[in-house]
């Protein structure tokens, strides 16, 4: 496996620039063609942009990796929030949820933010987004956090399958996917959670 350094990122312009520079150095070192390099850069930009919109106390680490013919944009988000801080964050809105979520990456951000609060809050997204629509697929796989595996909470491909199988009209959800840069350029997106760690993996086409 070829892997870049882990880069700590936050919502600052400096860290955003550092992350994009890391992506450019990664694609350049692998001599990727212009189209593939641009795809990876765009996925990196969308990932960093999502971090800039996140709320709460967290640490985010960004890197890229290549294994065989697979190119991945990776993000680990960790929090050391205690129960009191988690309850305070949940109570910021009257519903106890983020009601300003817009777009595909906004939903991914909400999954991560809820996952950082606690596992039960993350599971509540299944009901919020219309039951069996793919936002809660615990147990469908694992992520690796260095020593132990963690369940995958959400998968782009499983979400698409759920939309196809749903008997309800999901035109708005499909339109959202078609407008999303990440959904268009990614072969797969997974979000996994374990304790205070949320792992985002975007696999480029």
List the helices and strands and how they pair.
Layout (H helix, E strand, L loop, with lengths): L1 E2 L3 E3 L3 H17 L4 H19 L6 E9 L2 E9 L4 H8 L13 H14 L1 H5 L1 H4 L13 E3 L4 E7 H10 L5 H9 L1 H5 E9 L2 E8 L1
Antiparallel strand pairs: 1-3, 2-3, 3-4, 4-8, 5-6, 6-7, 7-8
Helix pairs in contact: 1-2, 2-4
- Determine Rg (CA atoms, Å): 17 Å
CATH fold node name: Heat Shock Protein 90
The average pLDDT is 79
N- to C-terminal separation?
A: 18 Å
Helix and strand element order: EEHHEEHHHHEEHHHEE
Runs with pLDDT <50, length 5+?
129-149
Tell me how many strands there are: 8
Strand content: 15-25%
CATH C-level label: Alpha Beta
CATH superfamily: Histidine kinase-like ATPase, C-terminal domain
Task: Tell me the count of domains.
Answer: 1
Q: Strand pairing plus helix content: what structural class?
A: alpha+beta
Helical amount: 40-55%
Q: Largest sheet, described in full?
A: 8 strands, antiparallel
Brief overview:
The protein is of the alpha+beta class and 205 residues long. The protein is 44% helix and 24% strand. The chain has one domain: Heat Shock Protein 90, CATH 3.30.565.10.
Characteristic key phrases:
205 residues; alpha+beta; Heat Shock Protein 90; 8-stranded antiparallel β-sheet
Plain-language structure description:
The protein has 205 residues and is of the alpha+beta class. It has a single domain, classed as Heat Shock Protein 90 (2-Layer Sandwich). It is built from 9 helices and 8 strands. Strands 1, 2, 3, 4, 5, 6, 7 and 8 form an 8-stranded antiparallel beta sheet that branches. A hairpin with a 2-residue loop joins β7 and β8. α1 runs antiparallel to α2 and α2 packs across α4. About 10% of the residues have low confidence.
């Amino acid at each position: 496996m070829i892997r870049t350094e882990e880069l700590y990122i936050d919502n600052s312009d400096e860290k955003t620039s550092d992350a994009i520079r890391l992506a450019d150095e990664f694609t350049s070192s692998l001599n990727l063609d212009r189209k593939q390099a641009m795809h990876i850069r765009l996925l990196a930009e969308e990932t960093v942009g999502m971090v800039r919109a996140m709320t709460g106390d967290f640490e985010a680490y960004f890197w890229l990796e290549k294994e065989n013919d697979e190119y991945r944009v990776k993000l680990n988000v960790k929090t050391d929030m205690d129960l009191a801080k988690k309850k305070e964050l949940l109570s910021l809105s009257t519903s106890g949820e983020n009601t300003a979520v817009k777009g595909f990456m906004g939903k991914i951000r909400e999954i991560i933010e809820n996952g950082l609060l606690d596992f039960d809050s993350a599971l509540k997204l299944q009901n919020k987004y219309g039951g069996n629509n793919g936002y809660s697929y615990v147990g469908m796989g694992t992520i690796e956090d260095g020593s132990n595996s963690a369940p995958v909470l959400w998968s782009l491909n499983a979400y698409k399958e759920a939309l196809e199988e749903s008997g309800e009209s999901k035109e708005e959800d499909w339109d959202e996917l078609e407008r999303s840069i990440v959904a268009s350029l990614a072969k797969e997106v997974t979000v996994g959670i374990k304790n205070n760690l949320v792992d985002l993996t975007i696999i480029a086409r």
